[in-house]
Amino acid sequence: MTDNVPLLLKALEFAAIKHSGQRRKGASAAPYINHPIAVANILANEGGATDPVVLAAALLHDTIEDTGATREELERLFGPDVARIVAEVSDDKSLPKEERKRLQIEHSAHISREAKLVKLADKIANLRETVTDPPATWSAERRREYFEWAKAVVGQMRGTHEGLERVFDETYARKPADSNGESPGVGMEKE
Counting C-beta atoms within 10 Å of the first and last residue's C-beta, which end of the chain has fewer, N or C? Predict the structure, then answer.
């Protein structure tokens, strides 16, 4: 792992520069860089990932989508595998939001295993943040809808990593209660 530290630090620095000034949607408006760090941390410390390419891609996973970085730039700086993984998990922001969400569900089944690992960790991080620091403008219903959409995305990737899928299910079980005060039970997250 020691030989991989330079790649990971380079990816972290690049992501920090690219996301500089960006904030998360949560009420606390945390620095955006906290999110890619959380995704890489989930992969390494909860998923046991040690592949530096996957961990670097996790740190960079939102740079194409949210910062104007290009696949070519990532390929030049981090190699073709990192660039491919980041491109696989990036939405096309020129499309309407609902279309992007639909395509994310559809495409999740067909991306590489490495990209699925990054996407699983991303969904876990996003659900956790939706529970602990939701956007101030999101109602409980909007948060529940997000949980359901994330579950649909992850449903397309089942069989990729049992441990991360279990972590996702545990996180999904924290879905906000509906208007009747009911939330899903631990056994309800799988269909």
Answer: C
Q: Which of 66, 73, 81, 133 is catalytic?
A: 66
Residue-wise pLDDT tens digits, 77-134: 999 999 999 999 999 999 999 999 999 999 999 999 999 999 999 999 999 999 999 9
- The predicted model scores a pTM of 0.91
Instruction: Using alpha carbons, select from 8, 117, 109 the residue that is nearest to residue 53.
Output: 8
66 noted as active-site residue: yes
Q: Do the beta carbons of residue 69 and residue 18 sit within 8 Å?
A: yes
Phi, psi of 90 (to 5 degrees): -90, 135
On the 0-12 / 13-18 / 19+ scale of CB atoms within 10 A, 48 is: exposed
Is 62 among the catalytic positions?
Answer: no
